[in-house]
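At this stage, I put together a protein sequence along with its fold in token form, as given directly below:
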Amino acid sequence: MLKIQPVPSNDHTPESARNPVAAFDADVIEAVRVNRSAVERRVVTLPGRRTVKKQWQAAWLVKAVQCIDLTTLAGDDTPGRVQRLCAKARQPVRQDLLDAMGIGDLGITTGAVCVYHAMVETAVTALHGTNVPVAAVSTGFPAGLSPLPLRVKEIEASVAAGAREIDIVLNRSNVLTGNYRAVYNEVRAFREACGPAHLKTIIGAGDLGTLTNVAKASMACMMAGADFIKTSTGKESVNATLPFALVMVRMIRTWRELTGYKVGFKPAGGISTAKDVMAYQFVMKEELGNDWLEPALFRIGASSLLTDIERQLDHFVSGRYSTAHRHPMG
């Protein structure tokens, strides 16, 4: 096993404790290799290996709703837009549909609301009285190229404003030049700045050139104490893809084998249909197991996805597809 720093609480076991910071081990990272052809073959076979219909499909989609980080990261965000988004997070699916499925009393919400730092306080106020956390994108999002001290201060400011989760973005040049010590040091500094807030590290998979780079970046981030690894900012030319997901979740599996600790996974960018999200759920189920179908270990960064899921649930209940305006996203 890798050398792990002590977990503060004695009553935690690796199965339940937060992923701690490990000592940097270049040998572990350098040993990582990815067979691209094998990854692509595995992804191609996925739709034929697993499919669900009718009430089982509805159940998977309701679970997907609970794992969504409902997101707005636009330059023209306003407090009103964020408040509407938070209202949708509180009640992501129409009550009549939940009642018809017999789950109207379960208190279904999304996994989180994700916003820029400037909107954290607005979102925290709008979600008061719920268990829905606010996630803030930080560290010079989306490029990650601002000075390190400023990126650390941004995290601290978001946590002080009430963010319970921080989505940071790597400086991808460190990965592209093979400087994984710098990746580790950067993420470790961000983890320390987060304090009790959970850290999601966006590796920017679409910018990293190869699947091996994606795998090594994932390993370095987990070594530095990341609670989640996340595919993309949503701003890259290539965002979440199933090959990226497969490589990253296999690194999560390797990390658990090495250390005993569980790390979460978040695909983001381009996931806009129920069919899309179920493919990612199938990857989680087959590669990592049922624990990674829950919001504690699986999140989906999305904005328009919720509308399509709600339409699919409406179709399950009524037998007809409704128009999109009957399922406002925010």
User: Anything to note?
Assistant: Confidence is low (pLDDT under 50) at residues 6-12. The chain has 13 helices and eight strands.
